[in-house]
Amino acid sequence: MFALLHYPLLALLSWASVSAQTQTEPGRVVWGSGNSGLSYVKSEQFGDFLLVKNRTIKHGLVYESKAAESMCECRTMCWTSSRCHSATLKEAATRSSCDLSEMGPENATMEAKGAASSMFWLEPLNLTYLEVLPRGIYWVHAHKKNFTTARTICSSVHGHRLMIIKEGREQELVSRAAMAMKAPILLHLMNSQNGLVWGDGTRYMDTVMARSIQPTVLSVDIPAYKFVLDKTSPALVQTDFVTEDFFMCQGDLDN
Fold first, then answer.
1. Tens-place pLDDT, residues 108-117
2. pTM of the predicted model, to two decimals?
3. CATH superfamily label, 49-121
């Protein structure tokens, strides 16, 4: 069974390399504690994947179920099947089983169940940028989407949402992403009757970003905002629900 370790250092990831000190097998590193049930695993041998505790993939989405003694064995079963994008290990005293599914992390319906863990390969998400911090995973989709579609894609992945910025390191992360993409990054920041609010209801003025960036307000009728780097100077610019931009999703690893 995988040991879920909390990795305490910042790790900036590219698809080619990762800087890390704690590994559970050669080329394998795990980020995430047991509180959120969501962990990110980087594996040079098997490919990167998300691990979700106490969740099973809905039975109707499973194309095959096999006997398996451990998550490692279940992972190998999925990895060696050309159809498999996700798998669930159901542990039992007499016979543990591994359910294989073609569903990726964005379209797999899950159900709560103790003594079970589900894994999802990251490849179906079609990412173009990825970073992992001690408390979260952050990624940019390869294709531009409008605000409504971006929010739906992010929330369809377990433990994820469209990006909100509440800490200085998250602001720095979005700056790096915008610089790497050479394009604006859509955020979950919206106009409301109470002023600007993040997607979780936090007032913009109560977060660290308000100390350094004053959002551009063209009209109170323009609902959403995107992060823009103009000659390395950060800005928040209004956008509507129709314009398509790159967007960042975030998954909490220890909330």
1. 999 998 899 9
2. 0.82
3. Hepatocyte Growth Factor (3.50.4.10)
